[in-house]
Design a protein that fits this description.
With 146 residues, this protein is an alpha+beta fold. It has a single domain, classed as Sufe protein. Chain: A (Alpha-Beta Complex). It contains four helices and three strands. β2 and β3 form a beta hairpin. The chain is globular, with a radius of gyration of 14 Å. The chain starts with a helix and ends in a 6-residue tail after the last helix. GO terms for molecular function: iron ion binding; iron-sulfur cluster binding. InterPro entries: NIF_FeS_clus_asmbl_NifU_N. One of its GO terms (biological process) is iron-sulfur cluster assembly. It comes from Lacticaseibacillus nasuensis JCM 17158.
Amino acid sequence: MALTKLDQLYRQVILDEAYHPRHHGKLSAPDRSVTLRNPSCGDVLTLQLQVAADRVTDAKFSGSGCTISQASGSLMTDLIIGRQLSEIPELVGIFSDLVINGSDPREDQLGDAAILKGVHQFPARVKCATLAWKAAAQAVEGATDD
């Protein structure tokens, strides 16, 4: 199966996000921190949020995992910084629908993260793509690892 030029571009962007992720690392004093594991492939991701006035002022993720989980973490953190906590569950839902079904009428709200919509063609990779987003949903709910 030959890749179209657009598919090749998307693949290159995903690889760049994974190998040069934004917001990768740890916060010095996070308000919320959630660690999730994907037992089917071994991905581990920790998401840390700094929150002020119910708005995400900073976010970092760390851990190890495949290209898809790392790219997804980078794209997700970039999207949620500056957002109200109340906005994040909807974004998580849109992203989940997008990678599970391949489309969502609201996918334009995801910005660059919509590039991962092709993951729906690979059901075994959906958990990889949604790991960071599930961590975001738990962090919004107030979950914090101790």
